[in-house]
Amino acid sequence: MNFPSNDTIVALATAQGPGAIAVIRLSGPKAISLTNQVFKGKNLEKQASHTLHFGTIRDGERLIDEVLVSLFVAPHSYTKENVVEISCHGSEYIVAEIIKLFLRKGTRLAEAGEFTKRAFLNGQMDLAQAEAVADLIASNSRMSHEVAMNQMRGGFSAEIKNLRTQLVHFASMIELELDFAEEDVEFADRTALKTLIYRIQELLRHLLQSFELGNVLKNGVPTVIVGKPNAGKSTLLNILLNEEKAIVSDIPGTTRDFIEDEVSIEGIRFRFIDTAGLRETEDKVEALGVERTRQKVAEAALVIYLFDINTTSPEELKAEVEDLKTVGKPILLVANKLDAGQDQLKKFAGMENLVGISASQKLHIPKLKNAIVSQVKTANLQDRSQTIVTSLRHVASLEKTYKALEDVLLGIGQGISSEMVASDIRRALHALGEITGEITTDDLLENIFSKFCIGK
Amino acid sequence: MFTEYDIIVVGAGHAGCEAAHAAATMGSKVLLVTMNMNTIAQMSCNPAMGGVAKGQIVREVDALGGMSGIITDKSMIQFRMLNLSKGPAMWSPRAQSDRMRFSEEWRTALENNLNIDFWQDMVSEVIVENGRVCGVKTSMGIEIRAKAVILTNGTFLNGIIHIGEKQLGGGRAAERSAKGITEQLVSLGFESGRMKTGTPPRVDGRSLDYSKMEEQFGDAEPSKFSYTDTEPLNKQRSCYITYTNSEVHEILKTGFEKSPMFQGRIQGLGPRYCPSIEDKINRFADKDRHQLFIEPEGWSTVEIYVNGFSSSLPEDVQFKALRKVAGFENAKMFRPGYAIEYDFFPPTQLNHTLETKLVENLYFAGQINGTTGYEEAACQGLMAAINAHQKINEKEAIVLNRSEAYIGVLIDDLVTKGTDEPYRMFTSRAEHRILLRQDNADVRLTKKGYDLGLADASRLEKVAIKIKETSEIATYLRKKSMEPAEVNTVLLALESAPISEKAKAANLLKRPNIEIEHLAKADAELAKFLEQYGKESIEQASIEIKYESYIEKENQHADRMKELENYVIKERLDYTKMPALSHEARQKLLKINPETIGQASRISGVSPADISVLMVYLGK
């Protein structure tokens, strides 16, 4: 437990969900110095309290985001500790990357209500507020370990339980040979123990990867651009990519294969997939392309339906949209060739998620980008809203477990005595316990007594 | 007939003897009441002191100024340092004792203390006035008054001995049980429970064939328990190892239908780590043999303790089965093993000082608190006496914390978590195991014992020298450069990588299989330097350097934990008025009434979120 507030905590301060800006808050003695380590801009440690600084957050050489940093030097802050607020782009991916970076630097994810608690404990609030704070903590943490486990997706919960069992078994084996050296029991040989750790580590790696916050987000949001031939898909793609990659021609159906490319908009990586049109065709090659387009739509996270505003009737559009909706993906409607001004859009009044652009004349492109980004935020953040912090917490715990197991292996490799190895195992158990609930000495002894005949 | 005493100690086992001695040494006038003056400091179970974790406790008792270490040194017949193949935190002293000498040495030690009076009688009641204890009433009807009372009743409270279908009232073989105290304490509001433990048969050493067993020798260079100038052994007796077999198991099974345990006549819960032989056979049916340690009970007696054969089966079944053990073909039994059930008081009813929460100045120590083991009992007796003495003299309470001593771990576990089965210490119970070593108990505790008036000046002086020497040696080793030419031969011989340029002695010492003696062999100057220092100081410095990184990690962890201990919960909190706490946490907190946030955090069922809530309520 880390309740004495001599450590530095971090958490997302703004509400989760769509928003242009997210604020990440740090509080604690090292809030400013740690931020300074990853911030490229002014030396934050030399700046006055209540100042605002523009710069970039970098993980080594890698740029994560452009940010604004607000400094509050102790005791002139909400918690009366050093506080830094980082305003970054409101992308789940960026927020996660920045928080993870701070976790690696040695900060800890704030417990539920911990900023408020610190504010209270440091005398920023009066005693009458204690009740409210206590309630806040209690309600936020009702998501106990069991509940948290249940909320996890896929087989994670089962795997983590399996991991716990294996680790408890491993720890018991070590404790057995420490406390019961005089007993007539066979101890696991070191090779077997190492094999077990490798297995556990493999599982951990697997979990960490599968848990990498939104693989989708990390690898880019697959976005399919669909539309009739010659609706201007390739032109649009080229604008978004700022380079000529797709073949652009005036002959309908020239885009036969899929062209993918990545572009970062407001920090979110998009993988745009240009497709052949959806037109019924007798050309076999093209027919194949149409079928593949349908596949790509099924795999996409976002569908952009592009149409020529001049040749598309509202009825036709509605029919197309109904057709696409069956796949169950968020759809953004983009009216191209809006050369005659916004009034042209009026005939589509009542259609949702509609943006008008002119690809060839590069008109209203920023508006389109905004629309694309907000589609993703809405879509992704809604079904993942709670898990962003929970999962980060889990990632942090799993990483700590992994690290402690590295030390265990190191110890075994050096032939160091088992009680030292055991102390690293305990760290591993403790870290894992942050997800599964605490693993106590009693658990280990219970395991020993149930499995081995101990005692004279 | 009696004037008022400062402290009355009820019971003269390991807890009672340490308690009487400690209180008297600190200056209290003590009355030791025992049912039988001839059975002071009995080793009711096996004739041995120490072992893994327990040996460390004896060292701690000694470091504080207790007597168990000295008595053990004076009465041992064999000494072994267990776990030497592991790291220093696991090294555990264990002695085979001469049972009768052990008892005699204790009695002599107590008789030599003029602050101790003795009275043979059975205490049937404690006298409580206004919520405070002020004496005891005995079965003879005598009232003796005192400012504080320490109960160390062992297995005597309503003790019932089981041998097969026979049930005998008694606290130990051939000794009657104690009546009255449980009932009175329950009427005062205490909760009592029932526990069970057992002991194996004793046999005639003259009837055993040792040629069929493995001999287990004492250490070639025996160490000892006490930090004082007691003598190590110059001759020792061996123990022997033999095994049960399937024939033995089959015979034992014939007695299962008369087993008081399997037939449910025994209600109390026994220790899982000290099962009876029938329990082992029953639970681990696939194991075709179990190890037995054949332990002599003294220098001159032929009585033998059959360690590992604890049983409450009918005596004839025990006898027949024993005779099928290799080396026991002609064995004669002195007395059968038995199980004993007795009353205990769940220790969550105590403060960390071992004073009861219900009755002021009343202290419990030993098996009455649900523990098992001489060592566990002795250290509780010591701590209860220290705190009783402090309390009646209006001095501060002495509570050892978990990173300071196994004693601290033991008492904190007892009062915080309670126990369902007889509680025995294991090193794994101590989260700061690496810090709680047998080699540094004096460094950890002697100053405390001295400040209390328990450890004498000569002990303190010895520790001061050890600390000074250790620091000098460590400083030297960190500065001292070793040349490749001089040290590589030694390194290669030990299969350790040779060095290509100068290296600090301390860094070489950190290699797993390199010891300070190896380095001394390679460097005459180092050897010469070390000559001026004591063995213990050299060992201490060497451990400090060798395990520096682990010790450092443990210290950091311990410091973090200590911060939670610093959040003292001063007044009694009304947990029922804290709706934000989980239901379970509220119940547990009400019951345990923790003294610090740290203690609260160790109560099972109290989650980190509950602790956060608690801290908010506490304000700071």
From TrEMBL, chain A:
<dbReference type="InterPro" id="IPR027368">
    <property type="entry name" value="MnmE_dom2"/>
</dbReference>
<dbReference type="InterPro" id="IPR006073">
    <property type="entry name" value="GTP-bd"/>
</dbReference>
<feature type="binding site">
    <location>
        <position position="234"/>
    </location>
    <ligand>
        <name>Mg(2+)</name>
    </ligand>
</feature>
<feature type="binding site">
    <location>
        <begin position="274"/>
        <end position="277"/>
    </location>
    <ligand>
        <name>GTP</name>
    </ligand>
</feature>
<comment type="subunit">
    <text>Homodimer. Heterotetramer of two MnmE and two MnmG subunits.</text>
</comment>
<keyword id="KW-0819">tRNA processing</keyword>
<feature type="binding site">
    <location>
        <position position="255"/>
    </location>
    <ligand>
        <name>Mg(2+)</name>
    </ligand>
</feature>
<dbReference type="Pfam" id="PF10396">
    <property type="entry name" value="TrmE_N"/>
</dbReference>
<keyword id="KW-0479">Metal-binding</keyword>
<keyword id="KW-0963">Cytoplasm</keyword>
<dbReference type="InterPro" id="IPR018948">
    <property type="entry name" value="GTP-bd_TrmE_N"/>
</dbReference>
<feature type="binding site">
    <location>
        <position position="230"/>
    </location>
    <ligand>
        <name>K(+)</name>
    </ligand>
</feature>
<keyword id="KW-0460">Magnesium</keyword>
<protein>
    <recommendedName>
        <fullName>tRNA modification GTPase MnmE</fullName>
        <ecNumber>3.6.-.-</ecNumber>
    </recommendedName>
</protein>
<keyword id="KW-0342">GTP-binding</keyword>
<feature type="binding site">
    <location>
        <begin position="249"/>
        <end position="255"/>
    </location>
    <ligand>
        <name>GTP</name>
    </ligand>
</feature>
<keyword id="KW-0547">Nucleotide-binding</keyword>
<feature type="binding site">
    <location>
        <position position="254"/>
    </location>
    <ligand>
        <name>K(+)</name>
    </ligand>
</feature>
<dbReference type="InterPro" id="IPR025867">
    <property type="entry name" value="MnmE_helical"/>
</dbReference>
<dbReference type="InterPro" id="IPR027266">
    <property type="entry name" value="TrmE/GcvT-like"/>
</dbReference>
<feature type="domain" description="TrmE-type G">
    <location>
        <begin position="220"/>
        <end position="377"/>
    </location>
</feature>
<feature type="binding site">
    <location>
        <position position="251"/>
    </location>
    <ligand>
        <name>K(+)</name>
    </ligand>
</feature>
UniProtKB/TrEMBL annotation, chain B:
<dbReference type="Pfam" id="PF13932">
    <property type="entry name" value="SAM_GIDA_C"/>
</dbReference>
<comment type="subunit">
    <text>Homodimer. Heterotetramer of two MnmE and two MnmG subunits.</text>
</comment>
<dbReference type="InterPro" id="IPR002218">
    <property type="entry name" value="MnmG-rel"/>
</dbReference>
<keyword id="KW-0819">tRNA processing</keyword>
<feature type="binding site">
    <location>
        <begin position="270"/>
        <end position="284"/>
    </location>
    <ligand>
        <name>NAD(+)</name>
    </ligand>
</feature>
<keyword id="KW-0274">FAD</keyword>
<protein>
    <recommendedName>
        <fullName>tRNA uridine 5-carboxymethylaminomethyl modification enzyme MnmG</fullName>
    </recommendedName>
</protein>
<comment type="similarity">
    <text>Belongs to the MnmG family.</text>
</comment>
<dbReference type="Pfam" id="PF21680">
    <property type="entry name" value="GIDA_C_1st"/>
</dbReference>
<dbReference type="InterPro" id="IPR044920">
    <property type="entry name" value="MnmG_C_subdom_sf"/>
</dbReference>
<keyword id="KW-0520">NAD</keyword>
<feature type="domain" description="tRNA uridine 5-carboxymethylaminomethyl modification enzyme C-terminal subdomain">
    <location>
        <begin position="545"/>
        <end position="616"/>
    </location>
</feature>
<keyword id="KW-0963">Cytoplasm</keyword>
<dbReference type="Pfam" id="PF01134">
    <property type="entry name" value="GIDA"/>
</dbReference>
<feature type="binding site">
    <location>
        <begin position="11"/>
        <end position="16"/>
    </location>
    <ligand>
        <name>FAD</name>
    </ligand>
</feature>
<dbReference type="InterPro" id="IPR049312">
    <property type="entry name" value="GIDA_C_N"/>
</dbReference>
<keyword id="KW-0285">Flavoprotein</keyword>
<dbReference type="InterPro" id="IPR036188">
    <property type="entry name" value="FAD/NAD-bd_sf"/>
</dbReference>
<dbReference type="InterPro" id="IPR004416">
    <property type="entry name" value="MnmG"/>
</dbReference>
<dbReference type="InterPro" id="IPR020595">
    <property type="entry name" value="MnmG-rel_CS"/>
</dbReference>
<comment type="function">
    <text>NAD-binding protein involved in the addition of a carboxymethylaminomethyl (cmnm) group at the wobble position (U34) of certain tRNAs, forming tRNA-cmnm(5)s(2)U34.</text>
</comment>
<dbReference type="InterPro" id="IPR040131">
    <property type="entry name" value="MnmG_N"/>
</dbReference>
